[in-house]
Amino acid sequence: MRTRKAIVLALLLLPFAAGCSPSPGGAARAIEVSEASLHVYAGDSLLYDIRHVLPGRNGEMWVLSALEPFVYRFSTAGRIQARFGRQGKGPGELLNPWSLAPVPGTDGVGVWDVGRHGLTVYDRAGVLTASRQVPLRTGTVRGDIRQISYGEPYKLRAAAGGMVVQVPAGSVSQPADLYSSVLLRLRDDGTPGDTLISFRGMRAAAGLGQAQALVPVPLWTTCPGGEVVVFEAARQTVHRFPARGAARREQLRIPTRALGEDDIRPYLRRMLEQETREQNLAAPEIDRLVGTLLGSTREMFGARTPAAVDLLCDGDGSLWLNQFSTRDHPVGYGREWLVFRGTRLLRRVTFPAGFRAAHVEGNRVSGTFTDGDDVQHPAVATLPAR
Question: What is the pLDDT of residue 290?
Answer without folding.
Answer: 87
